[in-house]
Design goal:
- By secondary structure, this protein is mainly alpha-helical.
- Helix content is 56%, strand content 11%.
- The protein has one domain (7-122).
- The protein has 7 helices and 3 strands, in the order αααβααββαα.
- The chain has a 3-stranded antiparallel beta sheet with strand order 1-3-2, sandwiched between helices.
- A hairpin with a 5-residue loop joins β2 and β3 (97-101).
- It is globular and about 45 Å long.
């Protein structure tokens, strides 16, 4: 299970649309490592002028790695994070996460998500990442 959904949010979903703020709160509480990675990247992005900022640090353990994978592999979770922080998030593997402007610099984004970049980011110690 990706998220620990409170009863109030479950009832909201059963009744119709889910409030984005409530969903973001659920993500923050359920996936704290992933939240810290993305919020930290978003803060660094806001503070700088680079077309992207990248996390290259491997997660400290498998639990943290799973959180990041669940957050960024889910279109709805990643989309909520993007809307909340006003950025575009790209994910290459278990830890290479990039944050771009909401409308990213096409050249920087295309390079980050390119097959070349994917191949160059592979390491034998990350085989099961």
């Amino acid at each position: 299970m990706s998220l620990n959904v409170p009863e109030t949010l479950l009832a909201q979903a059963a009744a119709g649309e889910v409030d984005d703020g409530a969903f973001v709160d659920c993500i923050r509480a359920s996936l704290p490592y992933a939240w810290d990675v993305v919020s930290g990247l978003a803060a660094r992005f806001d503070a700088g002028s680079a077309p992207l900022v990248v996390n290259e640090l491997p997660p400290p353990d498998e639990h943290a790695r799973g959180q990041l994978l669940r957050a960024l592999a889910s279109d709805s979770i990643r989309g909520a994070l993007q809307r909340h922080f006003g950025v575009t998030i790209a994910f290459r593997n278990c830890h290479y996460t990039g944050v771009f402007a909401a409308v990213p610099d096409k050249r920087a984004y295309d390079e980050f998500v390119s097959p070349r970049a994917q191949v160059l980011s592979q390491h034998p110690d990350l085989r099961d990442c």
